[in-house]
C-alpha cells in the first residue's frame, strides 16, 4: 500500500476517486508544525533557528499518520506546489521521520484531474528546499516584527495592540489615502456642450479647442469665463470640418490570477477576498479549477486546444481568435504555475450545475472563471467608431460615437461599454444649434479603497504574494485598524491612525512601501536559490533591533486620556475618556485601584423613537457597522439600518429613512413609497 498525504480532506476525497485500492489518501489538515504562540520561538543569536512545535490540534492527526506511514511501502507527499505547500511537505518529513526506514516521494500538480495525478505519480521529485527556505524566512521575519514591535506598542500606546510587517503597510496605504482625501482642495471647472441637430437627428458635441489650442479640463475656471465663451459664440455657424469613421477593436482580458480574481469577484459579487479564496479552494479541491494561488498567466497547450474546440463548436469559427492566445504576467510571477482556469474547458457552467451540487456562490465563481478563461481565447470585439469635428467661429467642438459591430469575446464575458449612435453626416455640412449648455463641475478627491482597489494597490507596489492578500485584509479589519463604511469602502479607525503614525515616525522601514517590496524580492531570490535566507534575515534584523532598543528609551508613553466632569459611579473620582483597541470609553482616573469603565453615550439624532417616547441614537455593532436604535434599549428594541430623517411615511405611517445612496424612502420593506 502507498500512502498519499495532502493538506485538505476535500482534496483527499477528490484524489481518491482517481486512484486504485493500492493507494490510501489522507489529509494533514493544513500545517502540522509551527512556531509557539507563547514566545518568539526564534533563536536570533544562532542563525535565526526556529523552535517548531506540533500544535495541540495537530497531535491526533500526526499520531494517525505515523501509524499509516509504518504500514506503507512508500509515503507520497502531494501538498500544493507553492512555498506554503512545499513547507508543509517538509514539515511532514520532520514530524513523521520520513527518511531512511520510511522512504518518501514528493509529487506536485496544478489541477486535480486523473491525468494530472497519474502524470505526477510517474514523475516524483525531492522537496525543493529553496521554496521551504523562502517560506521559513517569511514566517520568521513576520514573527520577529510582530513579537518585537507589538510589546513596544503596548508600552507606548495601548495594551493589546499588534503590528505586522505587511499588514502595517496596508494600513499605511489606507491612512495615507484618508489624509489625502481630508487635505484635498476641490477645483472648480466648467464644461460647454452644444446640442446640435441635422434633419431632426440631435446629438451633443463638447467644446475642445479655441484658436486651435486644446482647452484643458480645468481651463474654464468659473461661470464668468463660461458665459464669455457662450457670448462669443452668439450667432456662430456650426459647420462640420471633418467626419472620421474607423473600426476599433477591443481585446479580451487575460485569464485570472489570484489578485485579479479577488478584484473581479468583489466588483461583480461583493465577495470579500477571504470568501473568494475559500470558494476557490473548494472548487480546486473538488477538481473543477486549477490551483487558485498564482500570479502566472501561463496556460497549458492541452487547455488551449480544448477551448479552441469548444468555441468553434458552440459559437462558430469566427468567434475563435484564429490563434492560441498566450499571455505573460508582469513583474515577479512564478511562471511554473498556470493561470486560474477550469480543469475541463468544455464543462460550461450550466452543464456543471446540472451534473454537480455546487451551491450558489460556488456556481457564480466557477461561472466567472470559466467565462474569463474561455473569452481569453476568443476573437476581438469590433466597434464602428465615429468622430465629428465641428467649427464655430474660432472654437472647435467634437462629437464621438460608437456602435458594436461584432461582439466577439463579449458574447461570453460581457463588459460595460457605451453605445452612442451619431447621425450620418457629411463634411462641410451646416448644423442647427438647439442649445448651448454650460455646466459646473469640481475635481474629486481620490476614492477610498475597497477590497478590489486595495488588493490592486498592494499588487502594484509588489507587497505580499497571491496567498497573502486575503489574510492581510482580514487581519487589519480584525485588529480594528480599518473598517468598512456604509459604502463598503475602507476607512482607518482612530487607533489605526495612531498606530500608523507611531510606526511611520519611529520605524519608517517597517511601513515603507519600497522597503517592503524589496523584501518580497529578497524572498523571491531565496526561492530561486539566488540568496541565503539567514543572510536576508540578518540584514533586516540587526538595524531593526538596534533601532528598537533606541526607541524604547527615546519614545515616551503617549497620554491618550481626556479629562471630564463626570464622576465614577463606584468611587466618585473623576472619570476620564481613554482610547482602547475598539475606540474611546469612560474609565475611572484612579485606575488600577478602581477599574470601573462604561461606554461613551451614543450620538443622539434629535429624533423621537416611533415606538415609544425614547430618542433615536447612532450605535455600532461589534463589527463596527452603524445602525440606528432607540436609547431606551433593552426596554425598546426598535432599530433601523438606514438613517431616520424624523418624518413619517404618508402611506403606511412608518419612519422615512435616508439610504446609503441618499434616497429618501419608507423603512417598511412592504411599502414602496420613496422621494426623489
Outline the fold blueprint.
Elements: E1 2-6, H1 9-18, E2 23-27, E3 42-43, E4 49-50, H2 56-71, E5 74-77, H3 83-95, E6 104-106, H4 114-122, H5 129-156, H6 167-182, E7 188-198, E8 201-210, E9 213-214, H7 223-232, E10 238-250, H8 258-269, H9 273-285, H10 301-314, H11 349-355, H12 360-375, E11 381-392, E12 395-406, E13 430-442, H13 451-460, H14 469-478, E14 482-484, E15 490-492, H15 494-506, H16 508-511, H17 513-527, H18 533-554, E16 562-567, E17 574-580, E18 583-588, E19 597-599, E20 603-608, E21 615-620, E22 626-630, E23 639-640, E24 643-648, E25 655-658, E26 664-666, E27 674-675
Helix pairs in contact: 3-5, 5-17, 5-18, 6-14, 6-15, 8-13, 9-12
Estimate what percentage of residues fall within beta strands: 15-25%
How many H/I helices?
18
Percent helix: 25-40%
| Average pLDDT score | 92
CATH fold-level topology of the largest domain:
Topoisomerase I, domain 2
Structural class: alpha+beta
Structure overview:
With 676 residues, this protein is an alpha+beta fold. The protein has 6 domains: 126 residues, 3-Layer(aba) Sandwich (Rossmann fold); 136 residues, Topoisomerase I, domain 2; 126 residues, Topoisomerase I, domain 3 (Distorted Sandwich); 112 residues, Orthogonal Bundle (Topoisomerase I, domain 4), CATH 1.10.290.10; 38 residues, no CATH class; 59 residues, no CATH class. Helices cover 35% and strands 23% of the residues. The chain is built from 18 helices and 27 strands. Strands 7-8-12-11-10-13 form a 6-stranded antiparallel barrel. Strand 18 and strand 19 form a beta hairpin. Helix 8 packs antiparallel against helix 13 and helix 9 packs across helix 12. It is globular and about 95 Å long. The termini are far apart. The model has no long low-confidence stretch (mean pLDDT 92).
Amino acid at each position: 500500500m502507498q500512502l498519499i498525504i495532502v493538506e485538505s480532506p476535500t482534496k483527499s476525497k477528490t484524489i481518491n476517486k482517481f486512484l486504485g485500492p493500492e493507494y490510501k489518501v489522507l489529509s494533514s489538515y493544513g500545517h502540522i508544525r509551527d512556531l509557539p504562540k507563547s514566545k518568539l520561538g526564534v533563536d536570533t543569536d544562532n542563525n535565526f533557528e526556529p523552535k517548531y512545535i506540533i500544535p495541540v490540534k495537530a497531535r491526533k492527526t500526526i499520531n494517525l499518520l505515523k501509524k499509516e506511514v509504518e504500514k506503507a511501502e512508500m509515503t507520497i507527499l502531494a501538498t500544493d506546489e507553492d512555498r506554503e505547500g512545499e513547507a508543509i511537505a517538509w514539515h511532514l518529513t520532520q514530524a513523521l521521520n520520513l527518511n531512511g526506514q520510511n522512504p518518501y516521494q514528493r509529487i506536485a500538480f496544478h489541477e486535480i484531474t486523473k491525468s494530472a495525478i497519474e502524470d505526477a505519480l510517474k514523475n516524483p521529485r525531492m522537496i525543493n528546499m529553496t521554496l521551504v527556505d523562502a517560506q521559513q524566512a517569511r514566517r520568521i521575519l513576520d514573527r520577529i516584527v510582530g513579537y518585537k514591535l507589538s510589546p513596544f506598542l503596548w508600552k507606548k500606546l495601548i495594551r493589546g495592540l499588534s503590528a505586522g510587517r505587511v499588514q502595517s503597510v496596508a494600513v499605511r496605504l489606507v491612512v495615507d489615502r484618508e489624509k489625502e482625501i481630508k487635505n484635498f482642495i476641490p477645483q472648480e471647472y466648467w464644461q460647454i456642450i452644444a446640442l446640435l441637430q441635422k434633419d431632426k437627428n440631435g446629438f451633443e458635441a463638447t467644446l475642445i479647442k479655441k484658436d486651435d489650442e486644446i482647452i484643458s479640463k480645468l481651463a474654464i475656471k468659473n461661470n464668468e469665463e463660461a458665459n464669455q465663451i457662450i457670448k462669443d459664440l452668439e450667432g456662430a455657424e456650426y459647420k462640420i470640418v471633418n467626419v472620421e469613421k474607423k473600426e476599433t477593436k477591443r481585446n479580451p482580458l487575460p485569464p485570472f490570477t489570484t489578485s485579479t480574481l479577488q478584484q473581479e469577484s468583489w466588483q461583480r459579487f461583493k465577495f470579500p477576498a477571504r470568501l473568494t479564496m475559500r470558494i476557490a479552494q473548494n472548487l480546486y479541491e473538488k477538481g473543477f479549477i486549477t490551483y487558485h494561488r498564482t500570479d502566472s498567466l501561463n496556460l497549458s497547450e492541452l487547455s488551449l486546444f480544448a477551448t479552441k474546440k469548444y468555441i468553434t463548436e458552440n459559437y462558430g469559427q469566427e468567434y475563435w481568435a484564429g490563434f492560441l492566445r498566450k499571455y505573460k504576467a508582469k513583474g515577479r510571477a512564478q511562471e511554473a504555475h498556470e493561470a486560474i482556469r477550469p480543469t475541463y474547458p468544455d464543462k460550461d457552467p450550466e452543464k456543471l450545475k446540472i451534473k454537480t451540487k455546487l451551491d450558489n456562490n460556488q456556481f457564480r465563481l466557477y461561472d466567472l472563471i470559466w467565462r474569463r478563461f474561455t473569452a481569453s481565447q476568443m476573437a476581438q470585439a469590433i466597434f464602428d467608431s465615429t468622430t465629428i469635428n465641428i467649427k464655430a467661429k474660432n472654437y472647435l467642438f467634437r462629437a464621438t460615437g460608437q456602435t458594436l459591430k461584432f461582439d466577439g469575446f463579449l458574447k461570453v464575458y460581457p463588459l460595460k461599454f457605451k453605445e452612442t449612435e451619431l447621425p450620418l453626416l457629411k463634411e462641410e455640412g451646416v448644423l442647427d444649434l438647439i442649445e448651448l449648455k454650460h455646466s459646473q463641475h469640481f475635481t474629486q478627491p481620490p476614492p477610498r479603497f475597497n477590497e478590489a482597489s486595495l488588493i490592486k494597490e498592494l499588487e502594484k507596489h509588489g507587497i505580499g504574494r497571491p496567498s497573502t492578500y486575503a489574510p492581510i485584509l482580514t487581519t487589519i479589519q480584525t485588529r480594528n485598524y480599518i473598517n468598512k463604511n456604509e459604502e463598503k469602502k475602507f476607512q482607518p479607525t482612530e487607533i489605526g491612525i495612531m498606530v500608523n503614525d507611531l510606526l511611520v515616525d519611529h520605524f519608517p522601514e517597517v511601513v515603507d512601501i519600497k522597503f517592503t517590496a524589496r523584501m518580497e524580492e529578497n524572498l523571491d531570490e531565496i526561492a530561486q536559490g539566488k540568496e541565503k535566507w539567514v543572510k536576508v534575515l540578518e540584514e533586516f534584523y540587526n538595524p531593526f533591533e538596534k533601532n528598537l532598543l533606541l526607541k524604547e528609551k527615546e519614545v515616551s508613553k503617549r497620554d491618550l486620556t481626556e479629562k471630564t466632569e463626570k464622576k465614577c459611579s463606584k468611587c466618585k473620582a473623576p472619570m476620564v475618556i481613554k482610547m482602547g483597541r475598539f475606540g474611546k470609553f469612560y474609565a475611572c482616573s484612579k485606575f488600577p485601584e478602581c477599574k470601573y469603565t462604561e461606554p461613551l453615550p451614543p450620538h443622539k439624532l434629535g429624533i423621537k423613537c416611533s415606538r415609544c417616547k425614547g430618542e433615536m441614537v447612532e450605535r455600532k455593532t461589534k463589527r463596527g457597522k452603524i445602525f440606528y436604535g432607540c436609547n431606551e434599549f433593552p426596554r425598546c428594541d426598535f432599530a433601523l439600518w438606514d438613517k431616520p430623517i424624523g418624518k413619517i411615511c404618508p402611506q403606511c405611517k412608518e419612519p422615512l429613512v435616508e439610504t446609503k445612496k441618499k434616497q429618501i424612502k419608507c423603512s417598511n420593506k412592504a411599502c414602496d413609497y420613496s422621494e426623489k
